[in-house]
Fold each of these.
Amino acid sequence: MAPPRRHLHNKKHRHHIIFASIIILLLILVAAQLKQELFVINHSHQKAVEIEANKVDDPNQNPVQVAFGLSGNHPGFLSEFEVALKSVLLSAPLERNLSVHILADQEAFVSLKGIFNRTELSTWQTRNPTEIHAYDVTPDHPQMKHEIEDVHKPHFPNYVLDVRHTMGAFYRLFVDRYVSKKAAKHILYMDTDVVVMANLEALWKLVEHQERNVLFHWGKTMCSGFVVMNLQRMKEILTLAKRSNFTEADGSKLDLNSDQTIYQAVNISYPNEVNVLPPGWDMTVTNIWQSNNHPYDKNFPNVGMLHFNGGGSTQEAYFGDENGTEHNFITNFKDTWGNGKFYATLPWEWARYQAMSLVRPGSKGHSIQFYFSKGMQGAVNVSESERLV
């Protein structure tokens, strides 16, 4: 006897349900597998993006390096250096390490430990690792003198450098002999009469985003008091200078007693090897004092540094009262150039607290590390027991 139709219908219905359940289960499994694969892909992509971002933002990838050249121990000159150093430390990038390199003759080198002791820099805690390297370059003066004369003699056969008065004006040409090229690609050299008015990260981004691998970066006014140099190619500056046009450098004020003429000659003869920084990173008193540049805050809204060009004909600090007010931009333009005196009047104790206030939450910060060396030999880390004694 044939089974009832209802029974057959129910049996067929159950088969459909089972089949549909299997299909749904398979779809769920496939969806889960796809979800897992998508998660892996997205996670891998995210990690790749993070790694790439870390390559840019990792403080060890391209730390900011700043160099000074010191010659002699005149109080006015050294007080300018203190102010410039303070401005650098308080303008340190937020996501990069900072290294300061000081090329000094014997007199200046001896003075440095006293400055570091008095300012209590060893008690500072900074957001990122910070190092200060001091080099007594006096033993290297004969080699420097030989190379400088070698550059000038193709143009001026009778040229002789007087090392007693002008050697320090050429230190920046030899920075790469002391600073490790493995640590960073660029280094900023600044005169002691310069103060930094913006975070140095902004300057480094300008330099890094240049497509051309140029020799150096400086302002349109071609002032070597503030110049970012390519550590990997610095030796080429002297090589190219031998073949450069010195007669057009610095116009009628050809000065063979400083390296600025060398940089200008290279810039004029090989303009593609040089990058020009924005005006805000070229604020030099001697080049923009004219009234057509007033008001300074309107014509130069994005100022990163101020260069005061020293204390005139004296060795006194540019911010000192000894220089009078006739050409004192700090006094005459209090609302703009006058802000440069902020670092001159800011007590070192207050500066220390400003640096400490930037330390990341939960971090103890980083003590500044000091290194001292003589000549082109490797620097030796100063231990806690020996530091700044």
Amino acid sequence: MDACIQSLRLETALSYFAEAKEQGAGIEANRITYQSLLGVMVQRGNYKAVWQLVDEMQNNGIHSSVALSILLRGISCRSQAAELNRIVQLLDASSKAETEEKPVMDEALFASLAEACLRCGSLDLLWERTRLYSSQNVLPKLSAPICGSMITLFGQARKMERIMLLWDMIAAQEVMPTSMTLGCMV
């Protein structure tokens, strides 16, 4: 199955996956199996299959920060705002799940969320999530490049109050702004 995934032969990989599940030969799909399949499905833009696989993961109690990052990295344009909202709902549901494998809002996951929101033009969603995670004390340390992008886009949207609050967050987290980040403030 791995060879099929590596060579992007999704249909063959899925048939092996289905066969292994049917035979129940003591082989169970794990997070890595699901993440590998999700990566190819997202790369191909097959969101119907993506959401079927995500539903299966949830039914099997598999929650993964990596899977969420894969889904978020697949968001590429404004037309995918509905997909982005669904991923955020999944993130919320996963963080409340009663499992040992809860996704943790770490730097990589937040960066994936921020980048997806920025690509999709969902500045309100990004700001809402930034404030929510900050209030829950789970906001990871912001990176200077993400901050610069947020400052630029909030500036273009004329959201000066958000820029100032974001700058306060940057200072509170002791993020060392790069020359680019400072340039975004000008």
Amino acid sequence: MPHFYDSFPPHLQEWALEQSVFFTASAPTYGRHINLSPKGVPSSTLAIFDENHAAYLDLTGSGTETISHIYENGRLTIMFCSFSSKPRILRLFCTGRVVEHDHPAFQETIAAMKLAEIPGTRAVVLLDIWKVQTSCGYAVPVVESSDLGETEKAIEPGAVEKGELKQASRRGFDDRHMLEKWMVNKIEKKALGEYRIKWNSRSLDGLPGLRAARRMKGESVWIGDARARAYNALYHPMAVMLGMILGVVLTLAVLQSSSSGTLNVDKTLATLYLVLRRLSLMVERSWTVVSEGFGR
């Protein structure tokens, strides 16, 4: 059975930091691409401030989906799962905020996390945790290892304080450091900025991405953000059209009933049909212009 919490209990915090990997899930408000990303080594990249606040280091990568989605709607889910003999899935439902590497608060945030900054870190993602869920994880495979030793004890409230948490959940995994080496190489060649401009400026759905990358390519951040907000506001032309139709119908009904004292249904429906056809053509043409203007 799933269990829900309004905050991140200490025994689950301890368990989460023992895992080898966590995952981030996000989505645009209207776009088609729903993103899911793995993040390695939580003990080196994730900091838990208290039961409702955490943060993780966001390293330079080949996309900017999570950052773009957070900038647009703030929605973010973090998931941990056990690959050991004691199953568990943990989800953190969060509202995210982004502190980019060129922001004045970046170094202060890194210091508050008490983690070593990894070269090439492009941002810190701050997490406001508003709900926590655990579930069984019975279908998640077990990663076998010859040194697992005794079966892990269940991580329940009080287990850490009693000294019952002895087994390392990360056994059977080897940390991969290729990304850090790749970023150091890019920095030494002074090519990291160019890479971010190419791959981190926009999401797959065309949403604004890393602001530092957008500034480096000469884009006005506030104009780009304003265009994105305008696009989202106009994304549902059918809803706009329906509102206009209802307004026209109500206006016609009121005018007709006030002038004749009765409502001619056939005449009203015929008028509504003509209005619907004209509005449909207008909205279709307008939407084509808007879509081409935003390059989507």
